[in-house]
Amino acid sequence: MFSRRVLLGAGLLLPLGGCQTSGLFGQKKITTLSPRGDRLVRQIQNTGTDNMMAPEAPALMGITNEGRDIPVRQLAGENDSGRYVVSLVNIRKIHEFIFHRRQGDVLILHLSDTAFARLQSVRYPRNAKPSVITDMAVAETDFQQQLAFWFNRIPGR
What we know:
Blueprint: H1 4-13, H2 35-47, E1 49-53, H3 56-60, E2 70-79, E3 82-89, E4 96-103, E5 106-112, E6 118-125, E7 131-132, H4 136-151
Antiparallel strand pairs: 1-2, 2-3, 3-4, 4-5, 5-6, 6-7
């Protein structure tokens, strides 16, 4: 049997269990934004341009705007192997990157979180409908090439 005092004391201390102590006692906040991801987000926000992306390819990646174009902030660059573009998307209330580049008449797009984990890859031919890239090795190889291009251009490496 519990005494009334123990029950009353537990009832008084119960609301304290719901308090958040993440900022107290030296505990760190958990985030998914990597330091490089944070720098790339800031670089795109500071030097990129506002654009609209056609909704077909992002829809295959799970990003939709009810059939309308997707607002993005883009940064572009070039080297000997072609033109590279990274788009910062915030439609789902989180920062996401879409890396894309053209290979012949095909646009290759990769959706990534800010920790640079590839989430989805899409192939978009010039005169056809986009399709998800099912060959993971090909998708990962192209994604790593695009990341290497942008990692060399992120300030404060």
